[in-house]
Design a protein that fits this description.
By secondary structure, the chain is an alpha+beta fold. The two termini are 91 Å apart.
Length: 1003
């Protein structure tokens, strides 16, 4: 019983331990497997004791207590749940009356706090929270108490020779096992007076039952044989007949027959029976086995029956496997379909989604008449979804017109946190979901805010579309983002044309001021908005200018018309609606195009004379008709590679040989084949934003101009050169501007192998040539044979940098007492050096681009700086302590009589200093010190010496003794220390002896 009980209890404790400790969101297969392995080990041959159970319960309790402590600390944390709720309440109150920029800021802060609160509540709620953990710890403590009581009761029962179970009375088994029951069952010996009551009762009942039963047997025998008889008489008659001579003779014959049969059975080839009885037994066993098979109906033979049984069993097993496989597949499909995360992806830097109403002032002749022209009620919001496989099912949840699909796999909704209280409905409606092009993990959810009147903190939520009584695997929300609803006032609108800066046009060519110029430049309305208006109707607040596309505004009520500032119809045709300007006049003809934006009041848009607002015209760059010659291809005069430079550089265009014909063609196209230089020309990149282009060198001839800090891969550089009314495009092909490489000979530092980073010893001296300070220093640039050449190329010629610096160490602070001159690499180490390794880097850079890095280990010349620490007299290392009287005992032993410190030139540094060499204390100049330590049985009778007085002294109590009957011996170790490096092996020891003493008596 003990084994079964302990086995069940241990299983329960192990289950509780796993369920309370393994609470992270992960795959539990390994944990369940480990638990099963532990339970499988509990067998009848390998039982688990109550002591094992108690250890398991204690371990579970400790793990739960650790979690409880962590959660309790989280609740009390300044960023705990209560603090977050208070902050959210304060923000909601402030947001109630906020408008404009302030409302945007407060809404963003509310969003961040709400995300924090949601995460914290997920941690604290449920059985894994504080209250759940406390309950589980209490349950484990109760289980531990029960186990302790059982262990004690079990030990007492064993000690009593398994007779006394009284100890169980104090346990939960007291109702079932106690001493009274044991005593009542006692039946030792033959004296029934000493038996227990239960034993007496059972014995009497059995005896009575036997007597009654024998009477019944006698009655049956009398009825059976027709004469009055008893069991005893019947047994006697049977005995006489069975053991008479005739009966014995018949039994002998039967035995002989059985022996013969056994011999035959055992000798038969292939027989597997010892005797006839074994044969009969197998026949009977086989008969029983066949009967137990429960043969199916309709089977005539054993063979048919067995085959039918196997077929039925196989079918049942196959069906069970199929059911299990189907169930597992459903579980696997459900797990694969789980949405791991949904994260809001901001479109703009402020992270907000704007649902705004835009107003235009339609007043004329003074005053203000602000009317709404655009309500932005639908905005596409982007979310990053993981894994990407679920996006297909998300998109399929909505139809083309925004209706929810009947076959939707998920329920997708919007959780909104209103300014003051949680929203009871869903003011934002989802109009559709689509995949973002070329972004497999991004979806765009179109939110409809037509019913929204306030700003919200909003999150997208996704759950499985399942029956109410089914458990959903998916229940995930995105982070909250600020959905801001506000009013904006349009103060200015201009048409930003992609071709606004075009200055020349060929005869017969055109400029389109309305359409886009490829993908790089986009034409759109530029709208300047303010966040508020004053009481008098004037705009207020900080203006912000964005395109209609950026604001998400439809251009339905916006229109633009084009015109010229002067009558140029003779030379240009301009379509006022399309904005296309066509050049038809002679070279030199000029025109300036302007655009005017008109906004129509939506309320009167269908009227014959609608209300409109016409904004000030915007003029573009003056355009001149030019004669464009045939495009030319020029080459550079030098084939050397073009390298990055910190300043603008110019590279001459080739003018000799075959290149001379190109230059002549360019001049001809510019209207003057005999022009001596290009000083009267203008140069424009094609496209206009191209920074590298042709220009003039110092002789006003053509040169390729590369701006400062520029690099580019192989690119064809085209420049439009204009001279008066003539223009030509000139291209330099395959222009490449690169950074220098570390492997380039001009930038590769060559280290001198005969030297290293060892510093030199430097002494500062006063007017009398006495040393006042000492440092170790050296310029590290002398470690490289070509340092000046590399510096001249990289720094002087190209404007790069070469800087020395202490190598950064993220694990430790920079070593103290070390300075590095970044320009010449001079490293200086003072006596404040703390001993940390010194590494110096030399880095060559072009702007922020690192070209090379050299790391130089710095070595301190410790041997030259440290000198030697030794005995004053190498033969004398034992000294006597003066115990003449209390005064001498307190004065102590002067350690300076035993040791001396000298510099590398054998000049004394300590205990005194060579005054002909040092201007002041040499120990201070070098930063030296000495550490003393005591050893031996009598060391506790002495005070540890210090460098400040260099005295070995008895303790005050010892020195004051008038009599000492024991000799004292102590070993003093003096260890020199230096900031310049370790002085390994230079520590010295002496022995100081203190004799007994008896002071003279005083009157």
């Amino acid at each position: 019983m003990k084994k079964k009980f302990v086995r069940v209890m241990l299983f329960g404790a192990l289950t509780l331990t796993v369920s309370t400790v393994v609470t992270s969101c992960k795959d539990y297969d390994d944990d369940i497997k480990g638990l099963q392995e532990q339970v499988d080990k509990i067998t009848s041959t390998s039982p688990v004791s109550t002591e094992d159970m108690k250890s398991a319960v204690e371990k579970a309790k400790q793990d739960l207590q650790t979690q409880l402590n962590d959660l309790s600390a989280l609740v009390k944390n300044p960023d705990g749940e209560e603090t977050l709720k208070q902050k959210i309440a304060a923000l909601e109150k402030a947001l109630a009356d906020a408008t404009g920029d302030k409302a945007k800021d407060l809404a963003a802060r509310l969003t961040d706090l709400q995300n924090q609160l949601t995460s914290l509540q997920k941690i604290l709620k449920g059985e894994d929270g504080v209250s759940g953990l406390e309950k589980k710890i209490t349950e484990l403590e109760d289980a531990k108490t029960v186990l302790s009581e059982l262990i004690a009761a079990e030990q007492a029962y064993i000690t009593s020779g398994k007779k006394n179970v009284s100890a169980y009375e104090s346990t939960s088994f007291g109702a079932y096992v106690n001493q009274a029951i044991i005593d009542a069952l006692k039946h030792d010996g033959t004296d029934q007076d000493k038996w227990g009551e239960i034993a007496k009762y059972v014995t009497g009942a059995v005896q009575s039952g036997i007597t009654t039963e024998l009477g019944n047997i006698n009655a049956v025998l009398t009825e059976k044989y027709g004469v009055s008889t008893t069991l005893a008489t019947f047994v006697g008659n049977v005995y006489d007949k069975l053991f008479s001579d005739d009966a014995k003779a018949q039994q002998a014959q039967l035995n002989e027959l059985l022996t013969a049969i056994n011999a035959y059975v055992a000798k038969t080839e292939g027989a597997d029976y010892e005797n006839y009885a074994a044969l009969i037994k197998q026949i009977v066993d086989a008969q029983k086995a066949v009967a137990a098979l429960n043969m199916p109906e309709g089977t005539a033979t054993l063979d048919e029956g067995v085959k039918a049984l196997i077929a039925d069993e196989k079918s049942a097993v196959n069906q069970a496997i199929k059911d299990l496989t189907d169930h597992l597949q459903k579980e696997i499909d459900a797990i694969k379909g789980m949405i791991q995360s949904i994260v809001y992806v901001p479109t703009y830097a402020d992270g907000q989604v704007q649902f705004n109403t835009y107003y235009v002032d339609f007043a004329t002749g003074g005053g203000h008449d602000w009317k709404s022209v655009v309500n932005v009620n639908e905005v596409a919001v982007r979310f990053r979804v993981s894994p990407a496989d679920v996006i297909k099912d998300l998109v399929a949840c909505y139809g083309e017109n925004g209706e929810v699909s009947e076959n939707a796999k998920y329920v997708i909704s919007v959780d909104c946190q209103k300014v003051k209280t949680r929203s009871l409905n869903d003011p934002f409606k989802i109009k559709g979901i689509k995949v973002v092009d070329a972004e497999p993990n991004l979806i765009e959810v179109t939110l409809d805010a037509s019913a929204v009147k306030n700003s919200y903190a909003v999150a997208l939520t996704v759950t499985d579309k399942v029956a109410a009584d089914k458990k959903t695997l998916n229940d995930v929300s995105s982070n909250y983002f600020a959905a801001v609803k506000s009013n904006l006032y349009i103060s200015k609108v201009e048409w930003a044309s992609a071709n606004a800066g075009v200055a020349t046009v060929k005869k017969g060519a055109s400029i389109d001021y309305k359409e886009n110029d490829g993908d790089a430049k986009v034409s759109d309305y530029n709208v300047t908005v303010n966040t508020a208006i004053k009481a008098n109707g004037d705009v207020d607040g900080t203006p912000d200018t964005k395109t209609l596309s950026e604001l998400g505004i439809s251009d339905k009520y916006f229109s633009v018309a084009f015109s010229t500032t002067a009558n140029v119809a003779a030379n240009f045709d301009l379509n006022a609606e399309t904005g296309v300007l066509k050049a038809k006049g002679d070279a030199g003809s000029q025109a300036t195009v302007q655009s005017t934006v008109t906004v129509t009041d939506p309320a009167t848009a269908g009227d014959e004379h609608p209300t409109t607002k016409v904004y000030d015209a915007k003029s573009y760059t003056e355009v001149k008709i030019v004669s464009e010659g045939q495009a030319q291809t020029a080459t550079l005069a030098s084939t050397d590679p073009i390298l990055w430079n910190a300043a603008e550089k110019k590279y001459d265009i080739a003018t000799t040989g075959d290149a001379a014909a190109v230059i002549t063609a360019i001049k001809t196209a510019l209207g003057n084949a005999s022009m001596s230089d290009f000083s009267g020309c203008t140069f424009e990149g094609v496209p206009q934003d191209q920074t590298i282009k042709l220009g003039l060198n110092g002789s006003n001839q053509l040169a390729l101009v590369v701006p400062a800090n520029t690099t580019c891969e192989a690119t064809d550089i085209t420049t439009k050169i204009t001279n008066g009314d003539y223009t030509v495009d000139v291209t330099v092909k395959g222009v490449t501007v690169t950074l220098p490489k570390e492997t380039d000979a001009a930038f590769k530092l060559e280290a001198i192998t005969q030297t290293d980073g060892t510093l030199l010893t430097n002494f500062a001296k006063d007017a009398s040539s006495k040393i006042t300070a000492v440092t170790a220093s050296r310029s590290l640039k002398e470690l490289y044979s070509n340092y000046d050449a590399v510096y001249g190329k990289l720094v002087t010629d190209m404007g790069g940098t070469m800087k020395f610096a202490l190598a950064a160490n993220t694990q430790k602070a920079a070593p103290a007492g070390v300075t590095v001159n970044e320009n010449d690499g001079t490293v200086t180490v003072t006596n404040q050096y703390d001993g940390e390794p010194i590494n110096v880097t030399l880095q060559g850079k072009c702007g922020e681009n690192v070209i090379f890095t050299e790391t130089i280990p710095v070595i301190i010349p410790a041997a030259n700086l440290n000198g030697t620490f030794s005995y004053k007299d190498a033969e004398k290392t034992e000294f006597d302590y003066d115990v003449t009287d209390e005064g001498t005992r307190k004065a102590g032993f002067d350690l300076t009589t035993a040791f001396i410190w000298k510099d590398k030139n054998s000049k004394e540094v300590w205990p005194t200093f060579a005054t002909d060499t040092y201007a002041s204390a040499a120990m201070t100049i070098y930063g030296f010190s000495i550490e003393y330590s005591l050893s031996g049985n009598d060391a506790s009778s002495f005070v540890k010496p210090t460098i400040s007085d260099n005295k070995l002294k008895l303790t005050d109590a010892m020195a004051k003794l008038s009599m000492n009957n024991a000799n004292l011996v102590v070993t003093v170790k003096a260890t020199p220390t230096s900031p310049w490096g370790s002085m390994v092996g230079q520590a010295k020891t002496i022995t100081v002896k203190v004799s007994t003493w008896v002071d003279d008596a005083t009157n």
